[in-house]
Design brief:
By secondary structure, this protein is mainly alpha-helical. It has eleven helices and four strands; from the N terminus they run H-H-H-H-H-E-H-H-H-E-E-H-E-H-H. It has a four-stranded parallel sheet with strand order 1-2-3-4, with no helix packed on it.
Amino acid sequence: MSSENTGAAATPAAVSEGDISDDYLKNFHRTCSPSKDNDDRSLKAQLQGLNINHDDNCSPRNIADVPIEAMKHVASFLAVPSRALFAVALDKNLSRRECQVIAGNQWTTLDFGTVEKSLAEKLTDDHISAVLLCIDSVRTIKTLRLANCINITGVGLAPLRGSRVMEHIDLSLVPDHTSPLLDPVPPISQELVLPILNTIMGRGRLKVIEFPKAWRNHARELELLQRHDEHHPFNQFLNLYML
């Protein structure tokens, strides 16, 4: 293609090699001012972090060197939770503001059920915490669904402490229309999660909590055995808010 901008570039259906718009090129020219010997093809390759042999010191050496606005545009083609995962995966040295720019600001629902299952199953509490911080979840998220996040203990939900906007939390860890029973039982912990929920209850709009099936089964088993333990964290929570 010619390096002259003959009109507004069409929005691509997906970002791939040879599919970077003229806006990217102008962005790169402003940021790096590469030598005139570099043609558009090499500029596109640089923007995509491709390993090319170049003397130009402005060539990105890894994806984190690509301009933030370019990364924001790439992220716009991802599913909503994946945008935040993409942002936190880029570089640990990104500022909170840069992370938010890449992830976008249209956040009211965070549903990990829209993430590929094999990826969601590998997410740790560190990943969940980083995503919640990146999108300023304590002020933005109204609905949180942790479908398929079977590798978490719940400590990663700490950024939600004190939320006044949360309305619905789904801790069942399963997608809609699937069995709530998980084998093996996931490590999500009442002792870690309930204190976080305590800081949200009564402060705002929280109306719906969906608990893991294992928690509900355990409470039911104790009830059937006539061993109801009022000091158990889950029973204390139910006594305070649900009964």
